[in-house]
Write a structure and sequence with these properties.
Helix content: 25-40%
Structural class: alpha+beta
Shape: elongated
Distance between the termini: 56 Å
Number of helices: 4
Radius of gyration: 22 Å
Order of helices and strands: HEHHHEEEEEEEEE
């Protein structure tokens, strides 16, 4: 009986240490959706990074955009005035929606942002819902329904032009909070 009490006390005292060790392995990512470089700079305080993210997203937009054979086909999913003729990197013409926003995401370690960031284009369909290329397809390898090529789109739940959202991956990934700029 004494042996089991001692073992239980040892386990109870070691549990906080084990949980603390798990916290160091968590993956934190902060991410934001912005409609302009100005709104991004207002939320993050870093205009240079926002401009780089916008430029990179714009360059990727033609590659990852849903592609349609005609403007009418594009307008079934996106507003008519958002559909335009575009060219992919191979010079092939297609109709697709114009980029409506861009994402910035950055990994964090011990609560501080790490060097470097990821960014990508975002589109808004005719129902007002935001979409982005499915990160699981690696860009243009997916197929968007109703189009002939382009990336598979996934819905976006982020609210544009707000403070960047911090999410936790891995163990205990159900956490989410807002950061206060910077």
């Amino acid at each position: 009986m004494k042996r089991s009490r001692t073992a239980a006390l040892l386990l109870m005292s070691a549990t906080p240490l084990l949980l603390t060790a798990c916290q160091g392995d968590e993956d934190l990512t902060r991410e934001g959706l912005f409609t302009s470089v100005d709104s991004c700079a207002a939320q993050t305080g870093d205009r240079a990074t926002c401009q780089q993210a916008f430029d990179k997203s714009q360059a990727e937009a033609a590659k990852d955009a849903p592609q349609f054979a005609s403007r009418e086909e594009c307008a079934k999913n996106y507003d008519w005035d958002r559909c335009a003729e575009q060219k992919d990197s191979g010079g092939h013409s297609f109709f697709g929606p114009m980029m409506a926003g861009f994402f910035i995401s950055q990994m964090m370690r011990n609560g501080s942002p790490m060097a470097g960031f990821n960014s990508g284009p975002a589109w808004r369909n005719s129902a007002g819902a935001w979409q982005r290329p499915d990160p699981g397809t690696g860009g243009a390898s997916g197929v968007y329904s109703g189009s002939r090529a382009g990336a598979k789109m996934v819905p976006v739940t982020a609210t544009p032009d707000r403070a960047m959202t911090v999410t936790r991956g891995g163990f205990g990934s159900s956490f989410g909070s807002r950061s206060a700029g910077g």
